[in-house]
């Protein structure tokens, strides 16, 4: 008969995850954050009463919902860190379980995406500031600010029974959005065409 040793903390079973270079380590006395090769433990059972951060606005390599779910399993000394540090820590854990080929693919995809972002010339730069007063309809902003049932009902229209509509964006923003999307497609088409041209030239030079 095998003798199994179970370790419990706060009534939940923990599992060990080997930390790699670049993982986060904290000094309990001063909160210093740095690299560590130590063993880190994830809680086997999630913290049901913990309200995790929202990661949807961060440039992540994985679905933000994965981070929200995984945060409930973080140990206390990681849980109290900033959202960015927690995201970095959890990314390292997730990447550790990916095959090497998948890591390479994700890295190339990330570099390609970053290259597009750095070289893309916006048609309407003001769109990327996202000032609500410039884009959202005044009636919609007023209803959001009031945050009452009466306020929201005041902007609703019922063109057909059971179908409700309300104005969100200002007309000029919709026009800018359509033209920006068209412009981005043109840029991407040119970028891809140029990339294929370089590949063709390189192939020609190699063969001849």
Can you characterise this structure?
- There is one protein chain.
- The protein is an alpha+beta fold.
- Helix content is 49%, strand content 12%.
- The chain has helices at 64-71, 76-79, 83-96, 100-119, 132-135, 138-146, 149-153, 171-207, and strands spanning 8-9, 12-18, 25-26, 33-34, 39-43, 157-160, 163-165.
- The strands form 3 sheets. The protein has a 3-stranded antiparallel β-sheet, with no helix packed on it.
- The N and C termini lie far apart (70 Å).
- The relative contact order is 0.07.
Keywords:
208 residues; alpha+beta; transmembrane; transmembrane helix; two-stranded antiparallel ribbon; membrane; 2 domains
Structure described in brief:
By secondary structure, the chain is of the alpha+beta class.
Q: List the helices and strands in order.
A: EEEEEHHHHHHHEEH
Radius of gyration over C-alpha positions, nearest whole angstrom: 25 Å
Which range does the strand content fall in?
A: 5-15%
Total domain count:
2
Largest pleated sheet: 3 strands, antiparallel
Q: Kindly state the mean pLDDT as a whole number? A: 78
Which strands sit side by side, in order, in the main sheet? Answer: 1-2-5
Transmembrane segments: 185-206
Keywords: Membrane, Transmembrane, Transmembrane helix
Pfam families: OGFOD2-like
């Amino acid at each position: 008969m095998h003798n199994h040793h179970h370790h419990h903390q706060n009534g939940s079973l923990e599992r060990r995850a080997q930390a790699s270079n670049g993982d986060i380590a904290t000094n309990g006395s001063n909160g210093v954050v740095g690299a560590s090769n130590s063993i880190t433990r994830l809680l086997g059972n999630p913290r049901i009463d913990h309200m995790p951060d929202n990661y949807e606005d961060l440039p992540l390599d994985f679905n933000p919902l994965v981070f929200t779910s995984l945060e409930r399993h973080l140990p206390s000394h990681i849980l109290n860190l900033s959202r960015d540090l927690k995201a970095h820590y959890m990314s390292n854990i997730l990447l550790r379980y990916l095959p090497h080929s998948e890591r390479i693919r994700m890295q190339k995809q990330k570099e390609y995406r970053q290259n597009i972002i750095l070289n893309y010339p916006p048609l309407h730069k003001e769109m990327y500031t996202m000032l609500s007063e410039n884009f959202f309809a005044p009636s919609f902003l007023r209803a959001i600010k009031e945050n009452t049932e009466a306020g929201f009902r005041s902007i609703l229209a019922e063109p057909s029974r059971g179908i409700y509509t309300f104005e969100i964006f200002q007309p000029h923003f919709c026009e800018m959005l359509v033209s920006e999307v068209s412009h981005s497609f043109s840029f991407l088409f040119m970028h891809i065409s140029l990339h294929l041209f370089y590949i063709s030239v390189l192939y020609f030079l190699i063969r001849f």
